[in-house]
Specification:
single chain; eight-stranded mixed β-sheet; six-stranded mixed β-sheet; 19 strands; globular
């Protein structure tokens, strides 16, 4: 029975579509169930490390990504109060030399569109909207999924790629609500013409300070300018894609240097996200049901790896299915075993980098001294394990 059924994927975000494309490319019939009325992606810019470009190359999507990505020449960290440069890490050729692949930035909607367009080309991908997964009943050879409108679907397997507040995770892991970090992100995008030349930079720039930081970088080959302001707040305990409080933003950055204040002043309307993650878990699989991306291992944004780890998940899942010759339950276990330590390390390291960015007092002075000495490489040398990525062809033996 299961051999003739599609793999069902709950969630049509970047992770869900990446999984759909990867699995369908191997001949599996796939149905993506997106709860919204249309396939789309909210948010602003995201950074793409060399490990993610390695996946694009493996999937044959590099040219499509290059068409819409931007490749900054460097990454710079400043002190948010004084404006002093703490460290500059060269990217461009330096990233390629170190890792074999570039470091880029991209508009989240553009990355989503690349995977959506790739899925639409494949005849064995079915894309459904207004299809919210309410519950599911697994059995030995298939999974029955119940949608919110009462419809029931049969699938050979179910992949929960339904994000931070995953319904599938609650049934599989059952660990309740996500962990609220107390950090708030305000995101906005400006057209290049709206950014004064003195404030523009081709680099990824981060101003870090006590419980605050601001990140800026170009998008869409330099046509847009991305701003992300992050600060600690107890005003919200949960939220997603709501409008930010400009007064609170200005209060949190009241001690920032003039350049940062001027950049923040260019934005009249901000979108706000409460930043959450979860504790790493070893098991996110139950028979023919497994999790992917934020549903499996949500992480804070400080390493810019959320989308990238979801894409890695999709690739590993395909390799596991190849290795087990389509034995779904066995493949899901191997996929999970290959992923949980790496993704857990990213989750925990992202928390640590939040502390580095938001350092105060002696911690701030020590950070600046270490980075400015040149001996610590801004901590990026310590991320080689992450940026080297995974070798899909040598995952299973």
């Amino acid at each position: 029975m299961a051999q003739n059924l599609p793999i069902l994927i709950a969630g049509g975000g970047i992770g869900g579509l990446a999984a759909a494309y990867v699995l369908a490319s191997d001949g599996h019939p796939v149905t993506v169930l997106e709860q919204s009325g249309a396939f789309g992606e909210i948010g602003a810019g995201i950074q793409l490390g060399p490990n993610i470009f390695r996946m694009f190359d493996y999937l044959g999507l590099t040219d499509a990504i290059r068409h819409v990505a931007y490749f900054p020449p460097g990454m710079v960290m400043h002190d948010v109060r004084t404006g002093e440069q703490v460290v500059r890490v060269p990217l461009g050729d330096a990233a390629r030399a170190a890792y074999g692949y570039p470091y880029g930035v991209i508009y989240r909607a553009d990355l989503h569109q690349v995977f959506l367009a790739a899925c639409k080309v494949l005849p064995n991908v079915t894309l459904r909207t207004d299809a919210r997964v309410e519950s599911f009943d697994p059995s030995a050879d298939h999974v029955r999924v119940h949608l919110a409108d009462g419809e029931a679907l049969e699938g050979t397997a179910l992949i929960g790629a339904d994000g931070l507040w995953s319904h599938v995770r609650e049934a599989v892991v059952g660990d309740g609500k996500p962990r609220v970090s107390g950090h708030i992100a305000y995101r906005a995008v400006l057209r290049r013409g709206d950014v004064p030349a003195r404030l523009w930079s081709d680099d990824v720039r981060l101003w870090g300070g006590e419980k605050t930081h601001l990140v800026t970088y170009p998008l869409r080959r330099g046509e847009l300018f991305n701003l992300v302001a992050v600060f600690h707040s107890n005003k919200y305990d949960e939220g997603w894609d709501t409008f930010g409080d400009v007064a609170e933003l200005n209060t949190r950055f009241a001690q920032a240097c003039p350049q940062v204040k001027e950049l923040l002043g260019k934005i009249e309307t901000w979108k706000m996200w409460v930043l959450c993650d979860r504790e790493p878990v070893k098991n996110w699989t139950d028979g023919r049901v497994t999790l992917l991306g934020d549903a499996a291992h949500p992480m804070l944004q400080y390493l810019a790896q959320g989308a990238g780890q979801a894409i890695e998940d999709a690739v590993v899942l395909r390799e596991a299915l190849r290795f087990t010759r389509g034995d779904v339950a066995q493949a899901f276990q191997k996929y999970q075993q290959a992923r949980y330590l790496r993704t857990g390390r990213v989750q925990l390291t992202a928390r640590f980098y939040g502390d580095i960015y938001h350092a105060a007092g002696v911690q701030r002075e020590l950070r600046n001294q270490m980075f400015q000495s040149g001996t610590e490489s801004a901590g990026f040398a310590g991320l080689k394990w992450m940026y080297d990525g995974i070798d899909p062809k040598n995952l299973f033996h």
